[in-house]
């Protein structure tokens, strides 16, 4: 019997070992070939793709088209799954991969019919840009053709890989529209419902401008709210409601620049860290493109987006450029009259089990239609128009000055960005780059047909510009950058509160000269300036009940005024603020959510209203269970602390477990890691103690933060830095899967420029046939 058990166990172990071995062998077979020579009809001259010890893709080509082919090949080798995920996400085809769990999301994406729009955009592109996308797709498909076994994601899901088409790159651009402007779609509807449900006074109160303003021209928009309105009478019960929503992340980033007057070499200097969701592989891919254009050598180094044949943020050693989400208003909802004509089209969504789901889309002459509370609203979004996407960003390779960059920036069609530049001669500039809707008068709520038709649909012209300001400094951080006078036309598409921008601005005026290390220090600034008033408030209210909260007060007194790894006090203050807001506004915002509109966008600007309530303490805003505002605040703190302990120390109730580094631990994971037993965790980067938070330059949440850290002085690129939160390759057995992450985790400085070459692929054009 014992022998039988031994042999059975040995057999199971052997089978497991063989299974693991088979998986490993399959993964090994799917590794790309990094060295070798080939001939192809898809390059016009000798073309070379090399990689250094980090996997940095270095491309040397005769022309921009040949460089696009090699970049497509590199993306196809290292990031095929990511590219496929982006095009599926933008076309509403994730259900085919992961099943009905993605059906709701796919329906929300099919509402925009981006697959159809991508074809329209491609047809409208100039011939040179069409050729670039075609050549790029040839490179991607050449990489696909070389796979002996497809990447493991395809084995896990069993989904078929389709070849890359030029229009798929347009879908990748649309995926960025969804990331960067998707929240605007709900924000305008949430503001509309807030106004319709609760009236003008509540609307003005909740959406008033804050004290945190950092426009480049110094202009300030004053709040017109003098008196706090009564709590909405339509909400009959003031009982506390379960509202657990928190602010949406400030997608879009920091960037800043100083002129040559403030650097030791006289070159302008740029910083850029784009804030996005963090995952494995990282959204960006480091590359250097070297080719000739108009008989001049071009060399661009920076980050590319797999799926597109360009450097998105980087430098050509003459000019460095970077982006943050501008949050100009590019969305209109049009309230349709009852007799407005509509048509219905059907979209068919196929699930992973082969089931086809029919999704009807109602359309009007203004755009697709949503029905909310019996009213119909048509959507006009800049992303729905052919002028929303082009490849003009590739022309940054040839710019020689900030002035040249401005000319190119005016032609770029991407989700509207704050484009900041610095050049070798010391100049700096800011402008809104990307597709911007023309407005005679921007609106934060739904428009009537008459209001919408009066302004028409076309791209905006004569956008503002800041070139070489007298103070030698430029900064943007997703809050309002434009002058107050420009707000009427350019609007508010969901600006960040502005605390982060003010903190960056203050840091830039602390010194008279800067290096890359100084810029990195600003990017890592996790000082809790924004939460300091909340800390003072919390410490004060707990002091009146010192016996109950003696340990809490001790942690608050040693909080360090920073989002630091060891700070328990920071965690307590952060959670306290959230619960106060939820207590005061939860019922109002829940009613908007109940109507099918996401209310979270309204939380971004709610800070001034909250403090007005705290300072004036109107009794109509108290829940029935609270006799005073002090009682409300203490109860909010108790709830916040108990919620934290239930999550992070449910057995011991130990406050030390609430250190911010643990509560906000950085976890950069592969989307499929949780679905693969035993070995799935090997697909993730190691967990790192949290550092940073919202409302400060060092933005970081568990799965969100700086998707790159870039600091460069054109003309002095040996000091430039480009740090990314995961490796170049998405293949778990690749030497380049993890490399680079440790610099990110430890705040190290990875050089921008590539190092010694380790691998090289070369292509030669097919020999011409002899006659």
Radius of gyration: 27 Å
Estimate what percentage of residues fall within beta strands.
15-25%
Distance between the termini: 81 Å
The structural class is: alpha+beta
Helix segment count? 21
The geometry reads as globular
The share of residues in helices is 25-40%
Low-pLDDT runs: 1-22
Main-sheet strand order equals 1-24-2-3-7-8-9-10-16-17-18
Major sheet: size, sense and barrel closure? 11 strands, mixed
The multimeric state of the shown protein is: single chain
Q: How many strand segments? A: 24
| Mean model confidence by pLDDT | 93
Q: How are the elements arranged and paired?
A:
Layout: H1 2-29, E1 36-40, E2 47-52, E3 57-60, H2 64-78, H3 80-91, H4 95-98, H5 103-110, H6 114-124, H7 127-146, H8 152-157, H9 166-206, E4 254-258, E5 269-273, E6 275-277, E7 285-293, E8 296-304, E9 311-315, E10 319-325, E11 331-335, E12 343-350, E13 356-364, E14 367-372, E15 375-381, H10 402-409, E16 417-423, E17 428-433, H11 449-455, E18 466-467, E19 473-476, H12 487-490, H13 499-508, H14 516-523, H15 532-543, H16 546-557, H17 568-594, H18 607-616, H19 629-648, H20 660-663, E20 700-701, E21 704-706, E22 709-712, E23 721-723, H21 741-745, E24 757-765
Parallel strand pairs: 1-24, 3-7
Antiparallel strand pairs: 2-3, 2-24, 4-5, 4-19, 5-22, 6-21, 7-8, 8-9, 9-10, 10-16, 11-15, 12-13, 13-14, 14-15, 16-17, 17-18, 20-21, 22-23
Helix pairs in contact: 2-7, 3-9, 6-9, 15-16, 16-17, 17-19
């Amino acid at each position: 019997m014992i022998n039988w058990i031994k042999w059975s166990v040995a057999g199971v172990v052997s089978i497991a070992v063989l299974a693991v071995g088979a998986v490993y062998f399959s993964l090994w077979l799917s590794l790309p070939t990094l060295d070798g020579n080939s001939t192809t009809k898809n390059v016009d001259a000798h073309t070379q793709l090399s990689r250094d010890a980090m996997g940095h893709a270095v491309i040397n080509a005769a022309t921009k088209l040949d460089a696009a082919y090699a970049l497509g090949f590199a993306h196809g080798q290292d990031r095929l799954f990511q590219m496929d995920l982006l095009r599926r996400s933008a076309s509403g085809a994730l259900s085919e991969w992961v099943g009905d769990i993605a059906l709701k999301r796919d329906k929300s994406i099919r509402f925009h019919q981006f697959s159809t729009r991508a074809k329209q955009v491609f047809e409208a592109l100039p011939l040179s840009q069409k050729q670039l996308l075609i050549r790029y797709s040839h490179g991607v498909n050449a990489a696909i053709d070389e796979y002996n076994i497809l990447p493991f994601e395809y084995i896990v899901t069993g989904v078929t890989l389709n070849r890359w088409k030029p229009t798929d790159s347009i879908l990748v651009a649309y995926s960025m529209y969804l990331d960067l402007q998707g929240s605007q779609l709900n924000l305008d509807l949430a503001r509309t419902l807030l106004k319709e449900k609760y009236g003008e006074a509540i609307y003005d109160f909740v959406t008033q401008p804050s004290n945190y303003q950092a426009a480049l021209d110094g202009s300030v928009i004053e709040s017109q709210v003098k008196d706090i309105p009564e709590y909405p009478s339509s909400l009959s019960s003031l009982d506390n409601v379960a509202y657990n929503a928190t602010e949406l992340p400030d997608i879009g980033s920091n960037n800043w620049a100083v002129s040559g007057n403030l650097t030791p070499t006289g070159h302008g200097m740029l910083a850029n860290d784009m804030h996005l969701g963090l995952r494995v592989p990282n959204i960006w891919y480091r590359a250097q493109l070297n080719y000739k254009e108009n008989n001049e050598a071009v060399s661009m180094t920076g980050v590319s987006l797999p799926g597109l044949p360009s450097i998105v943020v980087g430098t050509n050693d003459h000019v460095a450029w970077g982006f943050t989400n501008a949050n100009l208003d590019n969305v209109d909802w049009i309230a349709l009259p009852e007799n407005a004509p509509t048509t219905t089209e059907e979209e068919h969504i196929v699930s992973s089990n082969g089931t086809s789901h029919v999704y009807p889309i109602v359309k009007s002459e203004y755009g697709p239609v949503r029905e909310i509370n019996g009213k119909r609203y048509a959507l006009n979004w800049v992303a729905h128009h052919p002028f929303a996407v082009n490849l003009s960003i590739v022309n940054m390779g040839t710019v020689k000055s900030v002035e040249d960059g401005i000319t190119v920036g005016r032609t770029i069609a991407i989700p509207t960005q704050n484009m900041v530049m610095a050049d070798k001669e010391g100049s700096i500039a800011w402008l809104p780059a990307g597709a911007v809707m023309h407005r005679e008068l921007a609106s934060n709520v739904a428009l009537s047909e008459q209001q919408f038709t009066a302004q028409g649909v076309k791209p905006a012209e004569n956008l503002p510009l800041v070139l070489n300001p007298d103070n030698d400094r430029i900064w943007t951080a997703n809050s309002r950058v434009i002058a107050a006078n420009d707000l009427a036309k350019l609007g508010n598409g969901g600006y960040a509160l502005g605390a982060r921008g003010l903190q960056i601005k203050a840091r830039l005026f602390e010194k008279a000269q800067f290096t890359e290390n100084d810029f990195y220090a600003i990017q890592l600034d996790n000082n809790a300036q924004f939460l300091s008033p909340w800390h003072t408030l919390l410490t004060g209210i707990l002091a009146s009940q010192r016996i109950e909260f003696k340990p809490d007060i001790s942690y608050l007194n040693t909080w360090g005024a920073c989002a630091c790894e060891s700070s328990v006090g920071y965690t307590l203050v952060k959670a306290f603020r959230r619960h106060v807001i939820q207590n005061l506004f939860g019922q109002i915002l829940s009613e908007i959510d109940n109507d099918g509109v996401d209310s979270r966008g309204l939380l971004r600007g709610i800070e001034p209203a909250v403090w007005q309530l705290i300072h004036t303490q109107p009794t109509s805003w108290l829940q029935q269970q609270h006799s005073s505002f002090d009682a409300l605040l203490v109860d909010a703190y108790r709830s916040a602390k108990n919620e934290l302990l239930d999550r992070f120390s449910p057995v011991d109730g130990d406050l030390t477990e609430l250190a911010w580094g643990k509560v906000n631990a950085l976890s950069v994971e592969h989307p499929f890691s949780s679905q693969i037993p035993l070995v799935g965790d090997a697909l993730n980067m190691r967990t790192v103690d949290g550092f940073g938070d919202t409302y400060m330059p060092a933005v970081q949440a568990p799965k969100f933060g700086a998707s790159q850290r870039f600091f460069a002085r054109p003309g002095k690129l040996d000091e430039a830095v480009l740090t990314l939160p995961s490796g170049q390759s998405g293949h778990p057995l690749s030497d380049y899967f993890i490399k680079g992450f440790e610099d990110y985790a430890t705040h190290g400085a990875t050089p921008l420029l590539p190092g010694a070459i380790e691998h090289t692929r070369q292509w030669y054009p097919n020999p011409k046939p002899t006659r």
